[in-house]
Amino acid sequence: MPIDEGPGWLAGLELRPKESQIAAPILRELTARTGFLVDVGLGYLTLGRQMRTLSGGEAQRISLANSLGSRLVDTLYVLDEPSVGLHLRDIEALLALLKRLRDGGNTVVVVEHNAFAIVAADHVVELGPASGDGGGEVVFEGPPEALTEAVTNTGQYLSNNLSQDKHMLSNDIDRIDETNLSQTNRKRRMDGAWKPVDGARTPAARRRPVDGARIRLGGATLHNLQDAEAEFPVGVMTVVTGVSGSGKSTLVHDILYRALERELKGGRTSAKEHLGEAVGSYDALTGLEHIDDVVLIDQTPIGRTPRSNPVTYIRAWGEIRRIFASEPAARKAGLEARSFSFNVKGGRCEECAGAGSVRVEMVFMADIHVPCEVCGGKRYRPEVLEVKVRGHSVTDVLDFTVDRAMRFFVREPKLGQALWHLQQVGLGYLRLGQPAPHLSGGEAQRLKIARELIAAAGKKGGRGRSRVAGGRTAGGTKRVGAATGPRKLYILDEPTTGLSGQDVAQLLTVLRKLVRAGNTLVVVEHDLDVIRAADWVVDLGPGAGMHGGEVVAMGRPEDVATVPESVTGRFLG
Question: What is the pLDDT of residues 349-397, one digit of tens each?
Fold first, then answer.
């Protein structure tokens, strides 16, 4: 049973007088708590849904609903990007909930990049002026109205981009009937192509043509998707949108990706289908002759041990070890490139096996890691640490941020190119040796994008075959089909997670490079800037759960903006 049906079911229970008296306080609490879940936009979830299947945003909103149910006062709530994974319509409900917590006598502190959440705040604190070593200062503090006039990154972004959007987010926005699609909308599906209504078009930015080859998926059925049809033009960037719970991930991940994987691998299925998870069905899938490879770039970790880090993941660590091994001090000491690896014997500290820390088992509590007493957390033997490149040891370099390493290795073009791609996806602040388990899902996803760009640049530069390992156990990027195929379809799940407005603009430039290289992008995203920059939009809805699961609009962003049934279209207009 969906959660939003819970209050009605509870109200309809027929109890004898004695039972009613006993159950009254329980029913009141159940009604209130299910109501809170509906208020935070989770009414589409079923009561038996397992917590492990929830997204991070859904889990965080459940915690919020639980906080409301506790009715605490004089409490400090700290939330880390609660808008992640939320459609703009759902952000409206989230902001209303946060204000209820505030009005209940609590203090709410939110770490957020979403422009609408920023302008809805009572007080804003902006840190900067840049990221990593270039940040750490409070560059603005005050009301959001004053921020739009401030000469800061966020202030300039708000003043330049929010004026056309802020009227879209209001508590009295007209709601779309989520129970069904209009017959008019259904009739606009003609000959397998979705036709938008006639009407005014918003000015379109320069986009790539979409009148060429397409991948067509028909009869997609799984969870709330019922006989859905969608088209994905080849050689362009398609953005899949829709309110939270409308079926975006089901369509793109569970059906489209698995279908492409199955077809390109000659009938073999993915590992997910052997874990008891539901498998979607479809009636038709055409256009496969236009792609050779499908790559899923999601937010799964790039590695599960501290030995995996950004510089090893992009395969630049070998170049750094080569640079240290070429130093006169290294040659004099008989050290080779492998001596500067913390993963093999030779130059690493054997007490901690190059980890820099040792694990202490706490029996009935979680294990803890303490710095190695032999190497002091530096990972290497003393003779290795004595080798310096312009005054810095290999351990020092591992502590460099990407930005600093770019400046330090400015005379190393191969290494510099790899680091430059990390900068381009907004990861200039990461430390080269930052352990993989400490990376967020968004950071892991952008690392995967950078590695794809580095691989493509390596092939273009004629430096030999560039290898990108497949399988999640080798780094979290699933690859299928021909390893060297020139025509790839990339599937990305909310790549803007954790990015500011300026970082989103930079990421869009990177994604455009992938498209210009002859690839196809399918991006699941809520960010308005990304949706407006799309060549093609597939919008699901009109609502969530059983009220969603249909393609309500498909076309250019300005076409989607004219479709009455599209919630996303209202924010694009």
Answer: 999 999 999 989 888 888 888 999 999 999 999 999 999 999 999 999 9
Centroid of chain to Cα 542:
23
Q: Which amino acid is present at 286?
A: T
Segment 457-488, tens digit of pLDDT: 876 654 433 333 333 333 344 544 433 446 89
Helix (H, G, I), strand (E, B) or coil at 54: coil
DSSP state at residue 281:
B
Superfamily of domain covering 310-446: ABC transporter ATPase  like domain (1.20.1580.10)
Burial state string for 87-108 with b = 16 or more CB within 10 A and e = fewer than 16: bbbbbbbbbebbeebeeeebeb
Token readout for 398 is 């591992």
CA atoms within 13 A on the CB side of 379: 18
Alpha carbon distance 567, 526 (integer Å): 12
* CB atoms closer than 10 angstroms to residue 211: 6
Q: Residue 10 in 3-state DSSP?
A: helix
Query: What's the residue count for the chain?
Result: 573
Please give the average per-residue pLDDT across 181-193, as a whole number: 37
Distance CA 530, CA 238 (A): 10
**Three-state secondary structure call for residue 376:** coil
Where do you find CATH 1.20.1580.10 in the chain?
Answer: 310-446
Banded model confidence at residue 317, pLDDT cuts 50, 70, 90: very high
Q: Where in the chain is the domain with CATH 3.40.50.300?
A: 214-298+476-572
Architecture of domain 214-298+476-572: 3-Layer(aba) Sandwich (3.40)
Query: Tokens representing 15?
Result: 């109890």
Sign for the CA dihedral angle at 402, 479, 554, 206 comes to positive
Mind listing the pLDDT tens digit for each residue in 218-262?
A: 999 998 899 999 999 999 999 999 998 899 999 999 999 999 998
What does the block give as tokens for 164? Answer: 């056309």
Which residue is listed with tokens 């005054």? 391
- What residues have CB less than 8 Å from 550, skipping those under 6 apart? 181, 226, 228, 540, 541, 542
> Nearest-CA neighbor of 320 among 377, 268, 397?
397
Residue 267 confidence class, pLDDT cut points 50, 70, 90: low
Contact of 47 with 10, CB cutoff 8 Å: no
- For the entire predicted model, the pTM comes to 0.82
And the tokens for 485? 């195929």
Residue labelled with tokens 């879209």: 168
What would the two tokens of residue 565 be?
């049934």
What tokens appear for 234 in the block?
């080849």
